Amino acid sequence: MYITCLDLEGVLVPEIWIAFAEASGIPELKKTTRDEPDYDKLMKWRIGVLKEHGLGLKEIQDTIAKIDPLPGAKEFLDELRSFTQVIIISDTFTQFATPLMEKLGWPTIFCNSLEVADNGEITGFKMRIEQSKLTTVKALQSIGYDTIASGDSYNDLAMIQASKAGFLFRSTDRIKADYPQFPAFETYEELMAAIKQAMV
Fold first, then answer.
1. Catalytic residue among 7, 15, 152, 156, which?
2. Does the annotation count 7 as an active-site position?
3. What is the total count of domains within the chain?
């Protein structure tokens, strides 16, 4: 029995922080988990930048409202869900993900939550569990599932490695070069074929 575990940003939807960096005119916010492997360090730095500029949850949600899934993502997800269980495992936050889940047809997502003050300032974040992607994949395996995993960033590598089959999707040249053992794909058609093959 298989469960496919997918990353969200960069795989099914554009990178939220990159979109917000462009909308807010703060280029340094373009830094993502493709650039910084330490997520805790990255988020604390982002919260500092937001505070410095007086920006909060509402401004980010206004940007997210304008983001659509990547072309072909919903169709890919619909087809995938027709023959296997799918869970999106993301380091994003419920407050960011909900509008995007609606556009993707409400797939299951496991993510984290932001700590937000009454005035809308983002004051912190609560991770669901440490090493959430790897821990979730191992938990699914412990209840009898084989996992297939795909993602694009440093924080996806552990779940890709731990799964029965794992694939990079639209990753960076650096990650692809550093991890040549993981097949790397650029199109949903290629990824779909690889997932189907892994389930044979």
1. 7
2. yes
3. 1
